[in-house]
Amino acid sequence: MISEETRKWARVISALEPLEEQIRAGQLSLEQAQQQLTGELRRDMEQDLARITAEATAAAQMTDDDFKGEWDEIVPKEDVHFIVQSIREDAEKTIRVLEIGRRLLEKYAPDKPAVPKAPDLFQDKDITPIPNNPYSHFVVEAIAKGGPLARFITDGWRENTIDGQPLLSKQAAPWRGGSMVAKFDPVEQQAVNAAELWAKVEGLNPLTADVALAILGTLGDPRQGEKPKFPMLEPVVITTDRILQYKGIQKWGSDRRVLQQRIAAEFKTLQDFTVEIRSIPFGRDKKGKELLVSIPRCKLFDVAEVYEDQYCLNGLMDKIPIGWAIRAGMWANYWFNSHGRMWLSGMSRVLLELDHRIVRGADVVAKKIGLLLLAVPGGTAHWNAPVTRRVERLLADIGELPEREHRGANWANRTRERLDTALGMLQECGALVACCYSDDYPDPGDRGKGWVDRWLSASITITAPEFVALESDKEQQQAAIPPSWKRKRARLGKPRKALEPGQALDETTVSRIRQKAAARNLLLKVLAGQLGVARPTLSNVLARREAPSAALAARIRAFLDSPD
Q1: What global pTM score does this model have?
Q2: Among 39, 291, 459, 539, which one has the highest count of C-beta atoms within 10 angstroms of its own C-beta?
């Protein structure tokens, strides 16, 4: 007669066997498997799992001598070894099956919190708000300039002269001595040498940028209200499944587990990333005094809680983070504060959907341009006017301009093809409204002597959708103004002439002006007085929002030509 204990054993094993096979094949997660357990089976597992496992372990350790003592009269001596081997193999399989049961009970204990549902940022829309400020821009820039060639690109990562560790530095408001320095802190990394930190930098890739953008978008979730409430105190949830959804990836089974593991690794990389902020302006106080921000070891986010699940990858059980509860770092206290100015812009879903694989060069270039010039450019200049960049400057900004000695024979042909294709892709998907090339931009078939230098010195002007939308709103508002109001407004002052591409100072000239002013310790107000203009006018000219008059342009040239 079969005992009740044996019946329980059989019920538990027969129920867990198919679950174990599906989990090892990557067809089922532990969470999904747990949902298939009945109340009776769960009760049997809780009561007898330890006993069954102990008995199976004893059977797996059985020797030929242990068997012979009990079965000498029944089993022929020459068959004992094969019978014992079969018993051990069956017991080992049973142990693997029972291990799945143990993990189910452990993972989904009543007191263990389930993974909260992460909100969908886009909510069936193509655009979502995202924090856009000097800090978020620099984080994305540091990622874009990472990768295998991080040491060899223009304005890229460099070795610290003291300890050889990698860092990326950028001047910001140099007349105030402002700067930002990105690095992987060895205290966080517990690294013993610089090579380990350089491996982190050279491992940065477009998927790292996708995860960073998903994090920023989650922190700027519109369901937090028009203005986020206590962004540093209230954690928000982000999961690997949501990130895969944003990217339009629908793979399942083991392929999905591998991608989830990659996203978790990129998340850990961003968690270890820090930026030192030094004297960066972020506004003015009530008295009009300029406010400066300085934050040592500023992180993009802090982790409040990690949610894990267990999957089988390559025949082995492993724990994989599948979700996090995060808070914005200290930067949010200044650039993402409900009591001050909100720094927000729109991020197109297309930018996340673009392929993150390095072999898809045009997709990668399009992603970098979209992120650094449109989604998180660090300001709103692209809202007010079309953005013009020399090709050389554009490639340097997005981390696609190696130093001359590292470019290779076919670098220019390959990079130009990727750039032109990328701009076409952004136009096609609506991330760009228009893209115009300067007259000196070489024709596609032009490969004559010096074409590379001509191409790098040519300019590209891109027009963002926000600029077109704002211009349309201005026209509608202007049309709605009654004629009597228009006459009154006309007497208030002469309207500022709209800028056309090329009228404003180029970036090189603006940089020279600021450097020369900094070398002479001239404040903007003092420099404006020397040039014979009001401070706001000079500020607009240097920000390239206003073209200088002929007289001011002459005085600027004289200032630049004067000896230090």
Answers
A1: 0.67
A2: 459
Grouping H, G, I as helix, E, B as strand and the rest as coil, residue 50 is helix
Which residues in the chain are classed under CATH 1.10.260.40? Answer: 495-561
Residue 169's DSSP bridge partners are 181
Using pLDDT thresholds of 50, 70 and 90, give the confidence band for residue 111. very low
Task: Give Cα separations from 315 to 88, 149, 251, 311, 421 (angstroms).
Answer: 20, 35, 19, 10, 42
Q: Name the 3-class secondary structure at 272.
A: coil
Three-state SS annotation for 507-542: HHHHHHHHHHHHHCCCCHHHHHHHHCCCHHHHHHHH
Question: 3-class DSSP state for residue 325?
Answer: strand
> Rounded to whole angstroms, how far apart are CA atoms 422 and 371?
13
pLDDT tens, residue by residue, 439-465: 889 887 777 888 999 999 999 999 888
Specify whether the CB–CB gap between 349 and 129 falls below 8 A. no
- DSSP-assigned beta bridge partners for residue 159: 166
3-state secondary structure 333-389: HHHECCCCCECEEEEEHHHHHCCCCCCCHHHHHHHHHHHHHHHCCCCCHHHHCCEEE
Distance from C-alpha of 379 to C-alpha of 506, rounded to nearest angstrom: 17
Taking a C-beta distance cutoff of 8 angstroms, is the pair 303, 325 a contact?
yes
Residue 149: CA count within 13 A, CB half-sphere:
19
How long a stretch of residues is the chain?
Answer: 564
According to CATH, the topology of domain 495-561 is 434 Repressor (Amino-terminal Domain) (1.10.260)
